[in-house]
Amino acid sequence: MTGEEYHSLASTEKGNKSSLRVVFLIACLLVLFSGNMMGQKKVDLGLFVGTSYYMGDINPSQHFYNPSMAYGALYRYNFNARNSLRFSGIYHSLSGADDNFRGQGLQDFDAKFVDLALNFEFNWKAYQTAQRKTKASPYVFAGLGYGIKVAGDPEVRSHLTFPFGVGYKINVGRWLSAGLEAGPRRAFSDLVDGVANPGTDNVFSPLGNRDWYIFTGVFVTYKIFKLWDDCPTYDEGIPRKGKR
Q1: What is the pLDDT of residue 227?
Q2: What tens digit of pLDDT does each residue of 53-84 get?
Q3: pLDDT at residue 200 above 50?
Q4: 50, 93 in Cβ contact below 8 A?
C-alpha cells in the first residue's frame, strides 16, 4: 500500500467515524427533545431506511444511478388530522463517474452527507397514528433543508436544499405507523458533485445547473401519548376517564 493510498484510507475511515458521530448526535437530540414532550400526544418519533441517488452535471438524466443506503431519524408534530410538521436527519452517500455518461473529462466524486430537513406535511385524508378510523392516507410534503458534507472530495460542498415529495402512511398497530416515501432534494448549489458549469457553458442559470438527489424508502413511527389520558383504542381519541 502506497503512502497516498494509506492516507486516503485513513481519511475515509476518519470520515466514516465522524459521520456516525453526527448521526448519533442527531438521534440523541431527537430522543431528548421527545422526552420533553412525553406528555404531548401529538408527537410521532421514528426511523427511516432507504436509498439515495444523485442527478446533476455528471448524471443529467438517469434515475436510480448508483444508489446508496440512507438511514436516519424523524420527529413529527401533528397539529391535527391533516397537517404536521416534521424534522428529519438522514445519513447517506452520493457519487458519480463521468465515464458512465458523456465522458467530458469531469472529475468523479464520492461524498457522504447528513441531510437535515424541516417539512410541512399535508394528509389527503384525515389521519392519526393509532386511530382505527384513520387507517391510511397518502400525503405530500415540502420545506427547507441543509445537506452537511461530513466526508468526501474537497470540491464537494455543503448546501441548502428544497425538499419535497409524496408518501403513503398506514397504521400497523396500537402505537405504530409505517409508510413509503419518495422525496427529491433540489440543492441551492452546483457543487454537490464538485462540478460547476461543465463544458463550454459558463453562464450561470438559477434553474438549469443545480444538483439534485432523491430519497426513496420506508419509515416506521411510534406515537408518544399519555398512557391514562390518551388511549389509542378509542376511535376519536376520547380521553380515558378513571373508574368511579
Answers
A1: 43
A2: 999 888 888 899 999 999 999 999 999 999 99
A3: no
A4: no
Closest among 146, 154, 169, 147 to 223, alpha carbons compared? 169
Burial class (CB in 10 A: 0-12, 13-18, 19+), 195: buried
The strand ranges marked E within 197-244 are: 212-224
Which one has a higher pLDDT value, 104 or 172? 172
From residue 170, how far is each of 166, 175, 183, 199, 235 by CA, in Å?
14, 11, 18, 47, 15
| Contact yes or no for 174/225 (Cβ under 8 A) | no
Predicted structure pTM score:
0.74
Q: Taking Cα atoms as reference points, which of 211, 89, 92, 101 lies closest to residue 157?
A: 211
Return the pLDDT at 176.
87
Q: Which residue ranges form the domains of the chain, and what is each CATH number?
A: 3-196+208-224 (2.40.160.20)
